[in-house]
Design brief:
A four-stranded antiparallel β-sheet has the order 1-2-3-4, with no helix packed on it. The protein has one domain: YVTN repeat-like/Quinoprotein amine dehydrogenase (Methylamine Dehydrogenase, Chain H, 7 Propeller). Strand 14 and strand 15 form a beta hairpin. By secondary structure, it is an all-beta fold. It has one helix and 20 strands. The protein is about 5% helix and about 50% strand. The radius of gyration is 18 Å and the shape is globular. Keywords: WD repeat. One of its GO terms (cellular component) is nuclear pre-replicative complex. Pfam families: WD40.
């Protein structure tokens, strides 16, 4: 990630896991370890850089009296937790918009959540998949959210359409919003999502545990290439 420390831009690599006691940070050019962020844990795809200034991780809440999960935000200059956003279920993969305004998290239930980073406010919750969400990504212009599930489906969501959708009433279940584009299907869990907006046709690339990588136009999700 491109990180800003003490007013200077520096490209670093941060690695963490669910059972590690610390997350090491490496200089991407030299491979040298710069520092360690202690008590920084995250599940697969549960680590995100927020506008080069913050590090976000998803994990169970450290408070034993709180049931559910939380998003922790680390200040990379002070190397300490500055805030957290709590939710009533554990969050797995997370992703952040390029401008650092929004953070999206996916849950094992198939629910997806959008937070405003600056305030920590939960802005939106919707049923993105019928099964656990395994991967999330914003498009390069942050106008779309792409979600992948453990059952191998990929859905593309329009940010504007999500915010315009009606909120469920307190007595109603979380709504399953229709996805903005047709979904892509793999035969196993989604492991990676990438969008390429340059060129005449924006592309969506997805990878899966089924050992395949699919490439399709972002507008209509019609498969145009398959690499195994």
């Amino acid at each position: 990630m491109d990180q800003r420390m003490d007013g200077e831009d520096e490209v670093v690599l941060v690695v963490c896991g669910e059972e590690c006691d610390a997350a090491p940070m490496f200089d991407i050019n030299t491979g040298e370890e710069i520092l360690r962020i202690y008590d920084c844990l995250a599940p697969p795809s549960g680590l995100a850089c927020v506008a080069g200034c913050l590090l976000a991780t998803s994990r169970p809440d450290k408070d034993p009296l709180v049931f559910g999960g939380a998003i922790y935000f680390w200040d990379l200059n002070k190397i300490q937790v500055t805030s957290k956003s709590c939710i009533g279920e554990a969050i797995g993969p997370i992703t952040c918009s390029k401008d650092g305004i929004y953070l999206v998290g996916g849950a094992h239930s198939g629910n997806a959540y959008i937070w405003e980073v600056a305030s920590g406010a939960l802005l939106k919750c919707w049923r993105a998949h019928k099964n656990a969400i395994s991967c999330l990504s914003f498009s390069q212009d942050s106008s779309l959210i792409i979600s992948g599930s453990e059952e191998g489906t990929v859905h593309v969501w329009c940010m504007i359409s999500l915010f315009q959708a009606e909120e469920p009433q307190p007595h109603e279940a979380i709504k399953y919003c229709p996805n903005f584009y047709n979904s892509i299907e793999h035969e196993a869990s989604i492991t990676g999502i990438l969008t390429i907006l340059g060129g005449p046709c924006p592309m969506l690339i997805t990878s899966s545990l089924d050992s395949s990588c699919k490439v399709c136009p972002l507008q209509d999700a019609i498969l145009c290439a398959l690499q195994t």
